[in-house]
Amino acid sequence: MRTELVFLLSYLLGAIPFAYIFARLIGGVDIRTVGDGNVGARNVWRSVGPLAGMATLLADVGKGYLAILLAKHCQLSQMAVIAAGFTAVMGHDWTVFLRFQGGQGMAASVGTMLALLPRETTLSLGVVGVVWGLLRHLDLAFSVGFGLLPLLAWRFGEPSQLVLYPVVLFPTIGLKKLIDLPRARRIQERLGRGPSGR
Fold first, then answer.
1. What is the C-alpha separation between 77 and 132, in angstroms, rounded?
2. Residue 67 resides in a domain
3. Residue 54: how many CA atoms within 13 Å on its side-chain side?
4. How far is it, in rounded angstroms, from Cα 82 to Cα 7?
5. pLDDT tens, 156-168?
6. Quick one: which of 1, 3, 36, 56 has the most CB atoms within 10 Å?
7. What is the model's pLDDT at position 190?
8. Residue at 148 is within a domain
9. What is the reported pTM?
């Protein structure tokens, strides 16, 4: 299979808006109009419930994982495999199926990392769990846990491309949060007014 086709399929796989689908099926809501408007597992969990949130989380992790497996199955180069994972995350963030209004890429990124660096990512997730358990701050927990990922990859002797991949990938999550912030504020202001707040 040609490399370009793998990239296209990886993008389309990443672009499947599971948050939108499960929020519609389980909660009957458009996830883009509730909570912070993010098309992701955390917003689904908070706005629809744990069942829909967990389904979304697993599906979003799975599509990142599968994009890497597809590229490996097609025997692409290491750099092309990494690029396929990145393309899947970009598909999640800017999905063609919702007029390029997607999520922020955390779960899809974790999926690509689990496929590329299973040992190091599992350890990082363990750190995320410990920090979250102590501080109950998910963003900080992920920042600490996955901030360690390049160091773990280096410590375990992974190729330089894999050491650098999370350094390039994870800042895109923060960037997407900043891009989405004005829309999130508009949604929260609208919801905060309510019917009687005109």
1. 36
2. yes
3. 3
4. 10
5. 999 999 999 999 9
6. 56
7. 79
8. no
9. 0.90
The answer on pLDDT for 119 being more than 60 is: yes
Give the model confidence (pLDDT) of 89-110 as tens digits: 999 999 999 999 999 999 999 9
The closest of 122, 116, 118 to 71, measured between CA atoms, is 116
In whole angstroms, give the CA distance from residue 173 to residue 175.
Answer: 5
Minimal CA–CA distance to 114: which of 94, 135, 89?
Answer: 89
Q: Is residue 142 included in any domain, yes or no?
A: no
Domain that holds residue 32: 3-117+158-193
Q: Is residue 146 part of a domain?
A: no
With the C-alpha atoms ordered 35, 41, 44, 47, is the resulting torsion angle positive or negative? negative
**3-state SS string for the chain:** CCHHHHHHHHHHHHHCCHHHHHHHHHHCCCHHHCCCCCCCHHHHHHHCCHHHHHHHHHHHHHHHHHHHHHHHHCCCCHHHHHHHHHHHHHHHHCCHHHCCCCCCCHHHHHHHHHHHCHHHHHHHHHHHHHHHHHHCCHHHHHHHHHHCHHHHHHHCCCCHHHHHHHHHHCHHHHHHHHHHHHHHHHHHHHHHHCCCCC
